[in-house]
Amino acid sequence: HVQLVESGGGLVHPGGSLRLSCAASGNIFSSYTMGWYRQAPGKPRELVASISNGDATNYADSVKGRFTISRENVKKTVWLKMNDLKPEDTAVYYCHGFRVVPPRNYWGQGTQVTVSS
Question: Across the 117 residues of the chain, what is the mean pLDDT of every consecutive 10-residue run?
């Protein structure tokens, strides 16, 4: 199965930038839709951005125009570039992989992003 490990989180001032990475180990990474979710304390986990195995992308309205998701199948890595960060972006960010047939659903352990002055 696919194992996902996130990195790149940290503390940044409002208006700053951060780049998260998610490295996958295992087989058939290229057939998965990959996504980034986030969860703030006391709130449900929400989808931030996704990228299909055909490189189609979707973004939450709250991050559209500020965040960019990308993938490199040879390196088995997906990135989330975050610009113009706001305090409300503070959350634990999780990498996610999904495949319909056969069904697979994998989560990373998460990386903390804190936006504070």
Answer: 91 98 87 96 96 96 98 94 98 95 92 97
